[in-house]
Specification:
By secondary structure, the protein is α/β, with parallel strands linked by helices. The protein has 7 helices and 13 strands. The protein is elongated and about 80 Å long. The termini are far apart. The mean pLDDT is 97. The protein binds benzoic acid (BEZ) and fe (iii) ion (FE). The site of benzoic acid has 9 residues, from helix 4.
């Protein structure tokens, strides 16, 4: 270890991790160190660039707290969160694709009966969101739970906006014996990810926009199945092809504007017209 050189430093650092008892951790560290060193050599990293990177990480930590994790936002904006989703979906191609969780999930949303309503005092265009939860063989799953959250027409999630009631536009629901779920809500709205931290610095430096296309977030779970964390996007959204967090997948992009059939108008008679329909069936992979 006395004579560290340009040539031997990477192997020496990797060797220093050889007592790591967790094999998976050592595998990850070995590749991480290899790639980090390769990267630094390839870009010929200077001291001032290294200092800038350390300052960036320090500011990322400084702005993060219990309620805000700027590291996760950076992971989203660098496409790392979506890469982890895509890797996972790649292993289970017959299940619904995953998409970013985002920072606005809250546990403990109230349970709605099937056909329940989230519109309440919210302004916006009315839509009935419905579908079936199935396993990967296509069989409907009774008692599966969907846990949904979305933003209001002003773009904000309730936990970012003191003008909205607590837990606004959030619900949980259990599927019926046909695996079905259904609730009325307002169409979600495109919005910009927070840009007042290092995420924003990165977006300005790369001249990217901070917009996410309108989406409904869903966690779907059922005993014996892998939990699915995903988002359902509105195909008509202006930002559908430029999501700041790379969350959009073709299979998760639907129309929020299907006209209701006569039978659907009857089932949803409690809703003031006009309203449209949005249909999505989920597929869960068994554990
Ligand atoms: C969201 O969809 O709520 C979100 C996802 C990633 C970053 C910021 C917001
Ligand atoms: Fe979101």
């Amino acid at each position: 270890m006395r004579n560290i050189t340009f040539e031997n430093i990477t192997d020496t650092v990797i060797k220093s991790t050889e007592n790591t008892s967790d094999r998976r951790l050592q595998e990850i560290l070995t590749v991480l160190i290899t790639k980090l060193h390769e990267f630094s050599k390839e870009v010929n990293l200077s001291h001032s660039e290294w200092e800038a990177a350390m300052g960036f990480l320090l500011r990322t930590g400084d702005i993060s707290d219990e309620a805000r994790n700027e590291f996760v936002l950076l992971s989203d904006l660098f496409g790392l969160s979506s890469l982890v989703d895509v890797i996972s979906s790649h292993r289970a191609p017959e299940a619904s694709e995953r998409s970013v969780l985002g920072p606005f999930y809250r546990p403990g949303a109230a349970f709605l009966e099937i056909g329940g309503d989230l519109i309440k005092e919210n302004e916006g265009q009315h839509v009935v969101f419905q579908g079936v939860v199935r396993n990967t063989s296509g069989e409907p799953l009774e008692g599966a739970m969907i846990d949904c959250w979305q933003n209001a027409t002003n773009g904000f999630y309730e936990n970012m906006d003191p003008t909205q009631p607590d837990m606004n536009l959030r619900c949980r629901m259990l599927t019926n014996s046909n695996g079905q779920y259904r609730f009325s809500t307002i169409k979600p709205t495109p919005y910009q990810v927070p840009d007042d931290g290092t995420g924003g610095e990165y977006m300005r430096a790369t001249d990217r926009n901070c917009w996410r296309p309108a989406h409904l977030h869903v966690r779907v779970s059922a005993p014996g199945y892998e939990e699915l964390v995903t988002e359902i996007f509105n195909e008509a959204d202006a930002y559908i092809d430029s999501d700041a967090t790379f969350g959009v997948r073709e299979s998760l992009t639907i129309s929020y504007d299907r006209p209701a059939t006569g039978a659907e108008k009857e089932i949803n008679a409690h809703l003031k017209e006009p309203f449209t329909m949005a249909d999505f069936d989920f597929r869960l992979k068994s554990l």
